[in-house]
Every structure is written in structure tokens, then in C-alpha cells.
Amino acid sequence: MQWLVTVPDDRRARLAPEQYASNFCEAHGPLDARRAQLEAERCYYCHDAPCTTACPTGIDVPTFIGRIADGNLRGAAAAILSANPLGGMCARVCPTEVLCEHACVRNTGETKPVAIGELQRFATDHFFSSGGQPLYSRADPTGRRVAVVGAGPAGLACAHRLALLGHAITLFDARPKLGGLNEYGLAAYKTTGNFAQQEVAWLLSVGGIEVRTGTRLGQDLCLDELVRDYDAVFLGLGLGAVNSIGIPEPELTGLGAAVDFIADLRQAADLGAIPVGRKVLVIGGGMTAVDAAVQARKLGAEEVTIVYRRGLHDMPASGHEREWAQLNGVLIREWAAPIKVLGENGRVTGMRFARTTMEGGKLVTGDESFVLAADMVLKAIGQSLNRGGLEGLVELRQGRIVTDDEGRTSHPAIWAGGDCRFGGLDLTVEAVEHGKLAAASIDATLRA
Predict the structure, then answer these.
(1) Cβ atoms within 10 A of the Cβ of 55, count?
(2) Phi and psi torsions of 305, nearest 5°
(3) Res 54: pLDDT
(4) Which residues of the chain have pLDDT under 70?
(5) Could you tell me the domains of the chain?
(6) For residue 87, what pLDDT is reported?
(7) pLDDT of residue 12
(8) In 17-174, where does DSSP find H-type helix?
(9) DSSP string, 372-393
(10) What are the residue ranges of helices labelled H in 268-318?
(11) Is residue 428 within a helix (H) or strand (E), and if so which, with residue range?
(12) In what order do the strands lie in the sheet with 303-307?
């Protein structure tokens, strides 16, 4: 994808090399040992702890925090990773403020919950920095083979759990690196130091998982052939298709998808080589919109504006994410819907927006409009399932795969989980739980 730099050789809007390193260092550093000890001692170690109930993967929060307090960091990591094999990444990106920390009993009568996410990161970081020695032993081979399509959080969790149970796994992914959104879809300042690949390597170290990258369902893989050749199939496809903004999208340099912008930046060896506009518009209101907008600012954009069709507090991005965007100089414009992409000489020059209001519980587009100038426009209004290769073998609803609570689809040999599954929250931690539950269901079915 070709992004717009107003004058290709003009670097005045760009930064010195050392500034990129500063801008894209880790946004929120880890706890040190002393702070972790003090924070762990704030925990009440509740029986039937509400924080554990609030965790989609059911991590025993009081146990792992208690082990930190006792100085048993390997034991703390074991408690985390036994419930969530991607517990290190989830500690970085999970919205703990609305999950486990929101449920912390210290919120009653106090203003600050235990910093569960930071403590989880402290324990898992120590484990991985110490070499990530094996915590589990793989069961004896069962002779059963399972195909896992998609190596994002759901697929990785499913493959890891099934391999531990002794099944032989073939893990397929369309991209050259495993990890899904953990590798390609998160802001670079959230996961520095190649952590996503370090976690993947640890997951694969259990053994029994054959990896095949560069293989896409519908092009390189045929689902009915996977069903024929394997004892079970798990689909962790994610959402690979970018939604349209609902108006004509002319072929203009500088108009593109926020997810592609983020992926290119995540894989760049030289951040200074990533083109960015001087005036950037990001259309949408979720975490992807925030990640794209903040990173555009950090790359040197002079003005970055998120435009959202509803009010600020309706935005899918959390309050923490909205505040982070504003702290980084991103302007958020509410109550505006795009109605026309503007361009000249093959390049985007801005967008026309209509003002919106809520009337009778419905969003209404009014007659009043305005124009915002831009030399880059990034679409961040969600993604949808790429249905290529599904071949009518599984039931879909609202563009996603229908499953039961265990991940079973309408086909008896196919399970699914993660963002491609209908009715989910589109959270990394939930995708991990989908993978775990499907693995348990697959294992029970194969042993029946």
C-alpha cells in the first residue's frame, strides 16, 4: 500500500532518528521488584475472588499474586500460564480496568484496585527473561491429528492445549509470522522487544506442533480436504476483510486501512521509512483507530484527528485509550459521518462530513456538513470475516461463524473461536479462552 508524503523527498514533517526511538519506546514500563512486592501485598487474597471470575480465562489471581508476595515468581508465572498461555501478552493489552481490576474488592470504599495486570506482567516477564523453561510435559501421543487454521491468540491457545494432550497439530497461517493481531495488529509501543515472537516460541516449545505459514484458506487450503485428512479442524481465522466506510472510495494515494498502516509499522526495520501525512484523519472509534492515530502522531504527523459518528462516550475504545490519544495530541471529533472522500491529482486531500445526532434512539445524518483537509485518511471502522474457503460447510450469522459454548460449529468435525466466532467480545483474552474450550471439546470428542 502506498501512503502519501506531500512532497516525496521533503522530510520537514519527519523526525530525527533518535526521536523515533524515544516515541516508540514502551509506553507503559513494567513494575520493578520493590513496587511489585508492595502492590502484591495490597491484595486481600479473597476466597471465591471476583477478579478471578471476571477474567475470561479464569486465572487464579489471588494465587499468582500471593506467590509474587512470597518471592516465587516462577510459581506465579505457572499459575498464570496454566490458565492463559498468552498471559504475557494479555498482561500488556488486556483491558484489565474493565475486567479483573474492575471487580477488585478494593474498589469498594477505596479508589484504586490492585494493579493485577501489571503484576501479571511482572511475573510473566521474569519467567520469559529467565529463559522460559518448560512448565509442562506433553502427554503421550494419541495418534490423532488436528488442523488449526489461523495462528492468532485463539489458534495458538487451541494448538498449545491440544499438543499438551498428546495430539499432533498442524498450525496453518497466511502470514509469514505467527501471532495474528498480537504480531501485526497492536501499536508498536505496546509490545516492544519482539515479545510476541518470544511468546510464540515458548508456546511451540511444548512440541507436537508443525507450522505451515504462507497458507491461506480458500487459496492454499481447502476446508473439505482438511476435514477429510485430519481428525478435527479448528478455525481461528480472525477478521481479515476491512469494512467499507459506506461511501464511494476512489483509488487515491493516502486513502487506506488503519490495520494495514499498523501492520506495516509493526514490521518496519526503519520507522523513518514509514510514510505519514502531515494532516491525518482516522475514521472510527475503536482501539485500532486510537492505535493508528497515536502512531501517526509519533511518526511525525502535525495534525491527527479521529472522527467518530457518535458521542465520545459511545466510542468502543476504552476511556483509558481515549485519554491516551488526547495526551498524545490527537483531536477527537464527535458526531460526524463521512459523506465524500476528496482528492486531487490522484491523492486524497480531505473528507466531507455530515453532522449527526441521535433522534428517537437512532443515529440521524443531518443536512449540515463540513470539510476536514487531510493528506492521509485511515479507515478504522471494523473488520469482517473473509468467507473465502468456508464453502458453506459452517453456519454463519451476521458474517461470523456460529458455534456453541464449546466452539462446535454446525459441522461435527469443525470448531471455531476468536474474532471470527459470532457473539464474542473481540478481546485477545477471550480468544485465548475460546481456543482452550475448543481444545477441551476436541479432545473429549476424539477420545469418545
Answers:
(1) 24
(2) -130, 125
(3) 97
(4) 1-13
(5) 33-129 (1.10.1060.10), 145-240+385-447 (3.50.50.60), 244-383 (3.50.50.60)
(6) 97
(7) 41
(8) 17-23, 33-40, 50-54, 61-69, 73-83, 87-93, 100-103, 116-129, 153-164
(9) EE-SEEEE-S-EE---TT-TT-
(10) 287-298
(11) helix 428-447
(12) 255-257, 376-379, 279-283, 303-307, 331-333
